Design the sequence.
């Protein structure tokens, strides 16, 4: 206590039960009730201060980490010689997640997702069927996986059994 404190008197209403508790506590400690109240208030304020300081530290930590990560990303980009505004999305195999290929006649021109070749309207193409959302897959016959291509042969009869 180096600084002399200016002390003020606060009047406040408290519930009877709380007053009883405070008086009991003061009696046990053999100090005036006002001392008990002051001590409790000071503790509460110090606890709040500590909590706030901790929250500020955490926020600062998060900000520092974000800043470091951003700088690292920029350094990586510079090292790669890239001029892209945003980092490219992680490459994903175009057929990942496809559970089957549905042959279809195209109503309009499309492009094979693997080789990029145009498939004209009225030509046969294969639609990748998924159970979960993903990029649209349209293949031309050349890019269809081998076994699927065999099964999809139009010459095959319906009773033709695979060995
Ligand atoms: Zn293709």
Sequence:
């Amino acid at each position: 206590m180096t600084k002399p404190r200016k002390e003020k008197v606060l009047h406040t209403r408290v519930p009877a039960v709380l007053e009883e508790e405070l008086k009991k506590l003061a009696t046990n400690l053999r100090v005036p009730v006002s001392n008990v109240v002051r001590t409790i208030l000071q503790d509460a304020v110090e606890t709040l201060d500590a909590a706030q300081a901790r929250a500020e530290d955490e926020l600062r930590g998060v900000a520092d980490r974000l800043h470091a990560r951003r700088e690292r990303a920029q350094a990586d980009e510079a090292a790669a010689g890239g001029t892209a505004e945003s980092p490219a999305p992680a490459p994903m195999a175009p057929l990942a997640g496809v559970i089957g290929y549905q042959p279809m006649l195209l109503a309009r021109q499309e492009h094979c997702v693997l080789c990029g070749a145009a498939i004209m309207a009225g030509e046969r193409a294969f639609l990748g069927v998924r159970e979960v959302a993903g990029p649209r897959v349209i293949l031309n016959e050349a890019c269809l996986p081998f076994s699927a291509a065999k099964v999809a042969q139009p010459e095959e009869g319906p009773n033709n059994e695979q060995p």
In short: The pocket of zinc ion is lined by residues 112, 114-115, 117, 139-140, 142-143 (CB under 6 Å).
